[in-house]
Automatic annotation (TrEMBL):
Keywords: DNA-binding. Pfam families: Cas12f1-like_TNB. It comes from the Archaea. It comes from Methanohalarchaeum thermophilum. The keyword DNA-binding applies. Residues 42-109 form the Cas12f1-like TNB domain. The keyword DNA-binding applies. InterPro entries: Cas12f1-like_TNB (IPR010095). This is IS605 OrfB-like transposable element containing RNAse H-like and Zn finger domain. One of its GO terms (molecular function) is DNA binding.
């Protein structure tokens, strides 16, 4: 977590994260323990990230996670696509956008953060899909 939070702070001036409501993360008999573990790890990571960002004069913005996975991240489309947890690809029947579901959510989270800060980040533009380096899921792609 230390290396990852440092890498984000070194690379980005503004970092958008979802404000997880961990009660929706897991279900079942052991859900209370699962929620505690997931919430603790996420909060610890965000705390590290926020601390390092503030020390570097950078910003971490938490946004509500609601509909970030369902909403199509194409700026010209306002469709919501229902998905099962096992559906790993966002496939919008309205605009034809087909991308990794986590990438779709990440774009939506960033764009929500940008809209929250408004004019304060006038030099930051909403992401377009082809602007992203998403080698986390595909090691054959590299960030340049």
């Amino acid at each position: 977590m230390h290396k990852l939070s440092r890498a984000y702070v070194d690379r980005y001036d503004v970092i958008a994260v979802e404000d997880l409501d961990s009660k929706n993360l897991s279900e079942g008999e052991s859900s209370a323990l699962n929620r505690y573990i997931a919430n603790h790890a996420w909060n610890e990571f965000v705390s590290m990230l926020a601390y390092k960002a503030s020390q570097a004069g950078k910003q971490v913005i938490e946004v509500e996670a609601k509909n970030t996975t369902k909403s199509c991240s194409n700026p010209n489309c306002d469709n919501k696509v229902d998905k099962e947890l096992t559906d790993r690809t966002h496939k919008c029947k309205e605009c034809g956008l087909e991308i990794d579901r986590d990438l779709n959510a990440a774009i939506n989270i960033l764009n929500k953060a940008i809209s929250l800060v408004g004019q304060g980040l006038s030099e930051v533009k909403a992401l377009r899909h082809n602007d992203l380096c998403w080698n986390h899921f595909d090691s054959s792609k590299s960030c340049g």
